[in-house]
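hiii so um. not sure if this is the right channel but i have a protein structure encoded as C-alpha cells and i wanna go backwards to a sequence. like what aa goes where. can anyone help
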C-alpha cells in the first residue's frame, strides 16, 4: 500500500470522506469542526500529544522557501507521518533557544502527502509533443539509467559547458538539495565530471543583492540582521519580517526583544497594519498603495535642504543623481535632484507637503511631519 492509499483508507475507516467533511464543517462551525476533524482523523489533541498515537519520533527539517530550515519532529507510524511536532529542545535564551516551526512547517505533512505531488518518474509518451500532457509512468531504474546515459553522451560530445545548474531559492541551505555552488549532492556530482555553467545575480533578490554590495561590501559575506542593534534607526519599508520570517529560526524570535533592549527606533512603512507594524513599530506610516516614490521624494527633499545626504557616496555609486553625473546624452534638467527640487521638467518641488498630499499623509501626523520625522531620526 503506498502513502496516498494509506491516507485514503485511514479516512474511510473513520467514516469521514473529503466531500462529507467539507459539508459537515461548513454547518457545524469553526470550533466544532476542528474538534470533530481531529477526532475523526485519529489525530491526538494537544493535551495528549503522544499518548493516543503510537509511533516513532524522528528528526527532520522544514524546507519551505524562507531559508530558516527549522527542525521538525515527525511522529511516524507504519512509514507514514501522522503528526508534525515542534522542536522541544533549548529554552528562551537567544542562541540556545527553541526553534518552533511556523504554520507552514507544522503543516508539512499535507505537503508531503499532497495528491498533486509527483511520487514516481513520468516520461512523455513517445510520439507526443510538448504541451500535449501525455505521460506514462516508468520505473526508477529506467529513469536513472536514461538520465545517466543522456548526461554522459552530452559530456562526451560537448563537455561540461553543456550543463547548467538552475538553482531555486526554495532549497538553499539544504544538505542534499543545496542549489547554490557551495555544496549539495548534485553540485558535487557535476563537479566530479568537470563542472557546469554557472550564473550571476539572483532572480529573487537582485535589487537587495546590489544594494548590499555598495552599502555593506557584499551580500553573502555581509553582516547579519541581528546587527540591527547597532543602528540608530530601523526602517522596514514594505517589509514584514514577523510574517515572512515567522519561525523560531528567523527574526520573529529575537527581533522584538533586541530592538526594545537596544532602544532602536523602528518605523514600518506599509499600507497594511502588518504584524511587524503591530509588534515592533514605534511608528507606523501608511501611505496610499503605489505612492512610495512620492514618500521617497519627500524624504530626499528634506535631506537635500538640510545637507545631510552623503554626496561622496552618491558621486561614486550613483548615475544621474545630479546634473554633474548625468549619463552622456541625457538632457539637462533630467537628474533626480532636479526632479526633487523645482528645477525639473514639472517645476514642482517635492516638499513634505507635496508628498503628504500624494501619499495621504502618515497616520496621526500633520502634513509637515515628514520633515520632522527625517530630521529627528537621522543621526
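sure thing!! here u go:
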Amino acid at each position: 500500500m503506498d502513502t496516498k492509499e494509506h491516507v485514503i483508507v485511514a479516512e474511510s475507516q473513520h467514516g469521514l470522506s473529503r466531500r462529507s467533511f467539507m459539508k459537515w464543517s461548513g454547518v457545524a462551525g469553526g470550533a466544532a469542526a476542528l474538534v470533530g476533524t481531529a477526532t475523526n482523523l485519529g489525530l491526538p489533541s494537544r493535551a495528549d500529544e503522544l499518548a493516543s498515537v503510537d509511533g516513532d519520533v524522528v528528526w527532520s527539517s522544514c524546507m519551505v522557501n524562507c531559508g530558516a530550515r527549522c527542525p521538525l519532529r515527525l511522529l511516524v507510524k507504519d512509514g507514514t507521518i501522522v503528526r508534525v511536532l515542534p522542536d522541544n529542545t533549548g529554552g528562551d535564551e537567544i542562541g540556545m533557544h527553541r526553534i518552533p516551526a511556523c504554520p507552514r512547517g507544522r503543516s508539512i505533512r499535507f505537503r508531503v502527502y499532497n495528491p498533486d505531488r509527483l511520487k514516481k518518474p513520468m516520461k512523455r509518451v513517445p510520439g507526443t509533443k510538448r504541451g500535449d500532457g501525455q505521460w506514462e509512468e516508468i520505473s526508477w531504474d529506467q529513469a536513472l539509467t536514461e538520465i545517466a546515459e543522456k548526461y554522459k553522451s552530452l559530456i562526451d560530445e560537448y563537455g561540461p559547458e553543456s550543463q547548467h545548474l538552475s538553482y531555486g531559492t526554495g532549497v538553499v541551505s539544504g544538505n542534499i538539495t543545496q542549489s547554490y555552488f557551495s555544496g549539495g549532492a548534485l553540485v558535487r556530482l557535476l563537479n566530479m565530471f568537470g563542472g557546469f555553467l554557472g550564473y550571476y545575480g539572483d532572480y529573487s533578490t537582485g535589487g537587495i543583492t546590489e544594494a548590499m554590495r555598495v552599502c555593506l561590501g557584499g551580500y553573502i559575506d555581509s553582516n547579519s540582521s541581528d546587527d540591527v542593534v547597532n543602528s540608530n534607526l530601523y526602517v522596514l519599508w514594505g517589509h514584514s519580517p514577523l510574517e515572512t520570517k515567522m519561525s523560531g529560526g528567523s527574526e520573529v524570535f529575537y527581533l522584538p526583544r533586541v530592538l526594545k533592549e537596544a532602544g532602536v527606533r523602528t518605523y514600518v512603512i506599509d499600507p497594511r497594519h502588518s504584524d511587524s507594524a503591530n509588534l515592533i513599530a514605534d511608528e507606523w506610516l501608511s501611505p496610499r498603495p503605489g505612492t512610495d516614490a512620492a514618500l521617497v521624494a519627500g524624504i530626499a527633499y528634506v535631506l537635500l535642504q538640510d545637507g545631510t545626504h552623503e554626496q561622496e557616496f552618491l558621486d561614486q555609486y550613483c548615475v544621474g543623481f545630479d546634473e554633474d553625473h548625468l549619463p552622456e546624452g541625457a538632457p539637462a534638467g533630467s537628474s533626480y535632484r532636479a526632479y526633487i527640487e523645482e528645477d525639473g521638467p514639472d517645476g514642482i518641488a517635492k516638499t513634505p507637503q507635496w508628498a503628504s498630499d500624494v501619499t495621504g499623509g502618515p497616520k496621526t501626523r500633520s502634513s509637515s511631519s515628514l520633515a520632522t520625522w527625517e530630521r529627528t531620526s537621522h543621526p
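oh and The longest strand covers residues 71-77.
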